[in-house]
Amino acid sequence: MITLIQTSTVGSGGAASIEFTGIPQEAKDLLLLLSLRNSVDSSSGTLAFNTGGSYTRMRFFGNGSTEDSDTSAIDIQANTSVSTANTFSNTEVCVRNYSDAQAKHYSVNSVNENNATLAIQAFIAGRWSETAAITSLELTPTSGDFVEHSTASLYSIS
Amino acid sequence: MSETPVKIVVDLSKPKGQRESIIELTSAELTEREEMRIESEATQAAQDKAEKATAAKKLSGRNKLLDLGLTEAEVTALVG
Q: Of A28, A105, A114, B69, which alpha carbon lies 20 to 30 A from A95's?
């Protein structure tokens, strides 16, 4: 069963980050759905568990004209200030067994919406090496702010 | 709009309706944010430079094949 824990919607002033703390530990998995737009021409952002730890990943990345893959820190994609007006990205993050005392595995499907050639898709399979239960999640744009009407919804799966 | 950037903190240990707080960034967080911005711009510039270099090499290679006498269709069939 999937249960909405909380949705956070960015207000008119924008937000430098969105953080969920005190995550309940009763469920099996976490699902994070994001609809984001950045205030500057930069699409990347980061997602951190418990604001620390070590991440490894494989990412398949395309931007409408080239494709790439790599292994580095977890990231998410947001629409940017030059994306088609009033459009937002779509991102889904699944974290398995987030309460277990072992490394956590996650997947990310993240796409931009843009009526142009440049529209990014990033698909990630990753691992967070810490064994502590995940009690917080923090989303941060690499530069700029998340603009008004951006949303982050956290669900539990049991 | 606030002068100082803010963050949204959603404390799920609190009852619904009392969870969300809008908090101004501390000076340390502002410094970290500026460092991330500078690093991001440097990374983007390096990626742009690499992409331009790759595009130039593709064009150069294509022109060399055409100079060897291959037709446009043959070059496209070979390298796309």
A: A114
Determine what percent of chain A is predicted with pLDDT higher than 70: 94
Distance CA A23, CA A47 (A): 15
- Token look-up 């703390």 returns A21
Picking from A20, A76, A150, A155 by the largest number of B CB atoms within 10 A of its own CB, the best residue to mutate is A20
Alpha carbons A34 and A13: distance in angstroms, whole number: 18
Better-scored residue on pLDDT, A4 or B50: A4
Q: Collect contacts of B24-30 with beta carbons under 8 A, ≥24 apart.
A: B25/A16, B29/A16, B30/B4, B30/B5
Judging by beta carbons within 10 Å of its beta carbon (0-12, 13-18, 19+), is residue B26 exposed, middle or buried?
A: exposed
CB-CB under 8 Å, A16 with B25: yes
> Which residues from chain B sit within 8 angstroms of residue A68, using beta carbons?
none
Across residues A45-52, what is the average pLDDT?
85
pLDDT in tens, A96-131: 999 999 999 999 999 988 888 888 888 888 888 889
ipTM of the complex: 0.87
Q: Is A17 on the interface with B (CB under 8 A)?
A: yes
Tell me the fold of A2-157.
Jelly Rolls (2.60.120)
Q: Between residues 103 and 142 of chain A, which touch chain B (CB distance below 8 Å)?
A: 140, 142
Coil/strand/helix, residue A34: strand
pTM: 0.82
Q: Evaluate whether A95 touches A127 at the Cβ level (below 8 Å).
A: no
